Amino acid sequence: MAKVAIVYASTTGNTESLANALKEAAGADAYFSTADSADAGEVLGADLILLGSPAMGAEQLEDSMESFFSGIEGQISGKKIGIFGSYDWGDGQFLSDWGERITGAGATLVGSMKAQLAPSDDALAEVKNLLSA
User: Fold this and answer.
1) Which of 8, 40, 107, 130 is 20 to 30 A from 29 (CA-CA)?
2) How far apart are the C-alpha atoms of 111 and 99, rounded to whole Å?
3) What is each CA distance from 14 to 26, 41, 92, in whole angstroms?
């Protein structure tokens, strides 16, 4: 079975709900952490990396995720990465921008999933599709 790493940042609990749905579907062997305490080596050693963040400010990543992602961005070439997150205003453009950064760094973006505010049951089911990449 492929090794999965799930790293997320959450301010209101919405992105955390998506991350927990992924963790439940991925099983006990998945590496699971918040962005502010994630081990870059563990994450980069995974076959599939799933990263989650809420939209902040002008459609930007949450600070701890921005810091974590910037730290690994130069080392993700050849990796399979899926992204997910929640947003309030706007249209979730931050995920499209993040996806461009990922592919620009040489990684394969396997999927992107966004939920507006608290994720619905459908969104919680949909995010699990990132695991089938």
Assistant:
1) 107
2) 9
3) 19, 26, 14
Q: What are phi and psi of 19, to 5 degrees?
A: -60, -40
Angstrom distances, CA of residue 121 to CA of 18, 50, 63, 66: 10, 19, 27, 27
Write the CA distances from 125 to 34, 76, 130, integer angstroms: 21, 27, 10
Q: Which of 50-54, 80-84, 129-133 has the lowest mean pLDDT?
A: 129-133
Strands in 48-52's sheet, in edge-to-edge order, are 31-34, 4-8, 48-52, 80-87, 108-116
Q: Tokens 């309030």 map to which residue? A: 88
